[in-house]
Design brief:
Elements: H1 2-19, E1 29-34, E2 40-44, E3 51-53, E4 66-71, E5 75-78, E6 86-90, E7 103-106
Antiparallel strand pairs: 1-2, 1-4, 3-7, 5-6, 5-7
Length: 110
């Protein structure tokens, strides 16, 4: 009886381990931007649904000089730091217009 219980427990544990969700990435590649001070920054494999700030917090916000989507997935560029005011779509391999982007988000747009 104890052997069957142990076997059932082990089987359930293995099934749960296999079913655990893996982190989902919206894109493979790099999001690259040039800050308003001229520094080049980047993030690899940007996650889906996360608001990525590329501008500098200030009043008013200092947007990035330019943003390059070097991933395999489309993104949306925003003029604010909280991904609320969209200004441009960024298809894979594209770049933003100059001095307008403060944040970027990959994945479905609500």
């Amino acid at each position: 009886m104890l052997g069957r219980f142990a076997l059932a427990t082990a089987t359930a544990a293995m099934a749960a381990a296999v079913a655990l969700p893996m982190p989902a990435y919206a894109a493979e590649g790099r999001l690259v931007w040039v800050t308003n001070t001229g520094q080049t920054k980047s993030i690899s494999n940007p996650p889906d649904g996360r608001c990525i700030q590329v501008g500098e917090p200030a009043f008013p916000v200092f947007p990035a000089r330019v943003v390059h989507n070097r991933t395999d997935t489309a993104a949306v560029a925003y003029s604010d730091l909280s991904c609320q005011r969209d200004v441009q779509s960024l298809p894979p391999g594209s770049s933003s217009r100059e001095n307008i982007v403060a944040s970027v988000k990959f994945g479905p747009v609500p």
